[in-house]
Design goal:
The protein is an alpha/beta fold and about 450 residues long. It folds into 3 domains: about 1-130, Rossmann fold, CATH 3.40.50.2300; about 135-300, P-loop containing nucleotide triphosphate hydrolases (Rossmann fold); about 390-430, Arc Repressor Mutant, subunit A. Helix content is about 45%, strand content about 15%. It is built from 18 helices and 16 strands. It has helices at about 15-25, 35-45, 60-70, 90-95, 110-125, 135-150, 165-175, 195-200, 220, 240-250, 275-280, 285-295, 310-320, 335-340, 345-360, 390-405, 410-420, 420-430, and strands at about 5-10, 30-35, 50-55, 80-85, 100-105, 155-160, 185-190, 205, 215, 225-230, 250-255, 260-265, 265-270, 295-300, 330, 365. Helix 5 crosses helix 13 (about 310-320) and helix 6 (about 135-150) packs across helix 7. The chain is elongated, with a radius of gyration of 28 Å. About 30% of the residues are buried.
């Protein structure tokens, strides 16, 4: 596959040089321009895949460059803007004109790379509307495996921590298998009372027990022709494991109070956050049932192991939750950095809850970081009244202070960590009035 061709427009050589080199090392064919005029000429004749542009540039600004190309009716590649001098309103205005994203300086190269990879994945998603699991290498690998499994009826065991999206993976395989969408039957074995489990799974005939006024097909019967998904199968009681194993072996079930067997045909998928092999060794799970369901195993990694999916999932949620006549909310760069550094013990489920809360509380189109987590919520005011430059200076000072403290105030080591020169760090410390305090 040919490298993606990227146009970088940045007049600051201290920032532009290392950034262009990093993009090349990451596999992009990067053309670096130091002025808006030179970049405009190149964009008129070169089919770039992506553009990363500063807003404040010599000759013409990044905004003027962008609107000029729009007025000329050019077929523009996706634009990501960088700004250290404008305001949030200016960034929002550019996005309303069609820019896909923006970054507030200073930022870590990994944040830009995450945005570029998400952009590539979004474009691939447009070409393949069925792609829906994620953009990380791990989730792409699972997607590829599911495509190979789609043509068979092999039993699949999906493992992973709570909240990683095991049912989403199961539903994806069900969809790829071209089965009747109405026949995806999901059962949480840990949430169903043991006293009701047999009647729910196998159904019952009229009069089978007190209160059974009418016959009812069980969930295994309802899954006939489709998919039976047994979530948290490790929590299934021992007695029910025996009856489930027999149903899987014979492909027949009998309702409570019934006299005849009923044939059923479904694909079995099971999921667990536990190590079933350990439960087998401890006598808590039947070994024969374990081998019956453990034909193919799909491990869904926790969110902390697939950082590429964090912003992708957050943006997808915001896009899906927008009303029919309203633009979706956007995350500020600081909010995105906070999402990327959070450990996510609750995985994807926690991320979606965080995004739902932030969307409800947000009074502006751009979601600030203080709305993401309850412990950082501010109720002192409605909207910030600082210009973006003042806010960025505060954030930059705090970030440099923390870096200096982490390196015990060794300037050379701190400059290397921040990927800037020693001179640049000294100048920033002087401008931001950063001094080491005794004690």
């Amino acid at each position: 596959m040919a490298a993606k061709r990227l146009c970088l427009i940045e007049d600051d050589e201290i920032m532009g040089g290392p950034l262009a080199l990093r993009l090349e090392l990451e596999g992009y064919a990067c053309d670096w321009f130091k002025s808006g005029r030179g970049a405009l000429a190149a964009l008129r004749k070169t089919p770039y895949d992506m553009v990363v542009s500063d807003i404040l540039l010599p000759h013409i600004s990044g905004e003027t460059l962008y609107t000029t190309l729009l007025d000329e009716g050019a077929n523009l590649p996706p634009f990501i803007f960088m700004t250290g001098h404008g305001t949030v309103d200016q960034a929002v205005r550019l996005m309303k004109l069609g820019a896909v994203d923006y970054l507030a300086k200073p930022f870590e190269p990994e944040l830009l790379l995450a945005k570029l990879r998400a952009l590539e994945a979004h474009r691939e998603t447009d070409a393949d509307p069925d792609h829906s699991l994620g953009i990380s290498p791990a989730m792409r690998g699972i997607e590829e495996l599911l495509h190979r499994l789609a043509a068979s009826d092999t039993s699949v065991l999906i493992t992973g921590e709570s909240g990683v999206g095991k049912e989403v993976v199961a539903l994806r395989l069900h969809t790829l298998s071209h089965r009747d969408a109405r026949a995806f039957v999901a059962i949480n074995c840990g949430a169903m009372p043991e006293a009701l489990m047999e009647a729910e799974l196998f159904g019952y005939e009229k009069g089978a027990y007190t209160g059974a006024a009418n016959a009812k097909p069980g969930l295994l019967e309802q899954a006939d022709g489709g998919t039976l998904f047994l979530d948290e199968i490790g929590d299934m009681p021992a007695a029910m494991q025996i009856k489930l194993l027999r149903a899987l072996q014979t492909r027949r079930i009998r309702r409570l109070g019934g006299a005849a067997d009923i044939p059923v045909g479904f694909r079995l998928m099971a999921a667990t956050h536990e190590d079933l092999k350990v439960k087998v060794e401890r006598g808590l799970f039947r070994e024969d049932l374990y081998f019956r369901i453990h034909v193919i195993q799909v491990r869904v990694p926790p969110l902390r192991e697939r950082h590429e999916d964090i912003l992708w999932l957050a943006r997808h949620y915001l896009a899906r939750s927008a009303g029919p006549n309203e633009p979706p909310h956007m995350l500020s760069p600081a909010a995105e950095r906070l999402l990327l550094t959070h450990p996510w013990p609750g995985n994807v489920r926690q991320l979606l809850h965080v995004m739902e809360r932030a969307r409800i509380l947000a009074r502006q189109p751009v979601i600030p970081p203080e709305l993401l987590f309850e412990e950082t919520t501010s109720v002192a005011g409605d909207t910030p009244d600082l210009a973006l430059g003042d806010w960025l200076a505060h954030q930059e000072r705090d970030y440099i202070l923390r870096a200096l403290e982490a390196n015990e105030w060794r300037v050379q080591d701190t400059a290397r960590l921040l990927n800037i020169s020693r001179k640049t760090l000294w100048e920033k410390m002087k401008r931001l009035e950063i001094q080491r305090q005794e004690g």
